[in-house]
Amino acid sequence: MRFRELLDFEYGKRLPAEFGGAKIRVTARADRRVLRPGWNGAARDLQMVARNLVRPGMTVWDIGANLGIFSFMAAGCAGARGRVHALEADPKYADLIARTAAGLGASYAPVDVLCAAIDARDGIRSFGISARGHARNRLVAEGTLAGGDLAALRSVVALRGDALLENWRAPDVVKIDVEGAEIVALEGASRLLSEIRPVLYIEIADTNAQAAAEILHAHGYDLFRLEGDGSESPIGTGCFYTIARPR
């Protein structure tokens, strides 16, 4: 099999036993690290977050779900009484999540997926498809042209986190991985942060670190960095492995 064909190939990869051992549909086009044995390459942090934060019966939101790796790990931890809502703007990956979800066993929380992006306002946005791997797909400014690291552009529905709250079960834990769109994701979730107050795991780009911290602090959250051993260290500004806990 040629390397390009290998990247596009879909196959089932089994989750660790602690997350139920289900096979989930993956493709290396999203993240080449899924080709490696085990999950420590592609999802070491996600395993720690699911293990440390998700308990039976919880509701979890996965914003920027990609292949749904965290969705299904969280579903294994939340169990049949829990619920997982996944948001993914790439229709191919949303379809993979839906197909995996349809085959989950009874011990898992139900997982549903909505094909849309997160934003500070509801509307239609431009979504860039990365030429370097679809895990880097992201919202782009209006008028952006394909080229460079963007192989193509698509129009996608974009929704606020507070709009999702009107239709989804209120979350206990929210994971956000939106490739630089952290600020608009937080700006569109004021009610979620002020009233529901879930624990957040959010990957924050260096360019957004201070602004994201200011929003979270204003809503009464303390910030911590997820360390490689699963522990948490207090931090004053955002980082790539940020856990935000309500005071």
TrEMBL record:
<dbReference type="GO" id="GO:0032259">
    <property type="term" value="P:methylation"/>
</dbReference>
<keyword id="KW-0808">Transferase</keyword>
<dbReference type="InterPro" id="IPR006342">
    <property type="entry name" value="FkbM_mtfrase"/>
</dbReference>
<dbReference type="GO" id="GO:0008168">
    <property type="term" value="F:methyltransferase activity"/>
</dbReference>
<feature type="domain" description="Methyltransferase FkbM">
    <location>
        <begin position="62"/>
        <end position="222"/>
    </location>
</feature>
<keyword id="KW-0489">Methyltransferase</keyword>
<dbReference type="Pfam" id="PF05050">
    <property type="entry name" value="Methyltransf_21"/>
</dbReference>
<dbReference type="InterPro" id="IPR052514">
    <property type="entry name" value="SAM-dependent_MTase"/>
</dbReference>
<protein>
    <submittedName>
        <fullName>FkbM family methyltransferase</fullName>
    </submittedName>
</protein>
<dbReference type="InterPro" id="IPR029063">
    <property type="entry name" value="SAM-dependent_MTases_sf"/>
</dbReference>
